[in-house]
Specification:
- Helix content is about 70%, strand content about 5%.
- It is mainly alpha-helical and about 230 residues long.
- The chain has a two-stranded antiparallel ribbon with strand order 1-2.
- α4 runs antiparallel to α10 (about 215-225), α5 (about 105-120) packs antiparallel against α6 (about 125-145) and α5 packs antiparallel against α8.
- The radius of gyration is 19 Å and the shape is globular.
Amino acid sequence: MEHDAPRQNLAISAYHALKHDIIRGRYAPEEKLLMSRLKEYYGVSTGPLREALSQLVADRLVVAISQRGYRVAAMSLAELNDIYDARAQLEGLILRLAIERGDDDWEASVLATAHRLAKVTEVSSPDELLDGWDLRHKAFHTAIASGCNSPHLLQMRDTLFDQVERYRHLWLQETVMSPQALETKRQEHAALVDVILARNAEQAANLMRDHLMTPVPIITRVLQARGIH
């Protein structure tokens, strides 16, 4: 199949598959990524796989340990706190700008994505619930951020989001999207929408920062239980 597709498409496909598996914990922090196993598992040759790994190095999910070797990036409490704080600070700034600059179409997109997120419980399995909720949750927050009308700020936001995902997934797994967790998040999102539509920038930014920081204590406990400090 490989010879039928352009090399770039293979590299992109391998990148997304490997990134997904690192975020979901298929590979442990600091685990060595053996090219022979990766080539077999993902069905790609050395060239596209190296391109994918190089991009993951840029994403700070993988570390190059020599000219030919790669490891999954380490995880730490210091990085957890720094990434989450940076993301919460940036999201607060972006939200202030969105409230200042967002138009009626922006408000409509925030309402629509919030509505879809609130109805995500109608699925058949825990994995479907987690994946479905996560996709709609990302769409909701992306809709809010889009109102800032700054491509550069949104690019910075995407970079921080990617770096936080591996930590954030530990929180998602720990809560297993329980009815209680879903209801708590639904209430937080509803409160966010209310202050956003009221164009209360100060209160909205504070709520957003608090909302984004809630997983940190849970992730901290998970990491400590795994011997990560």
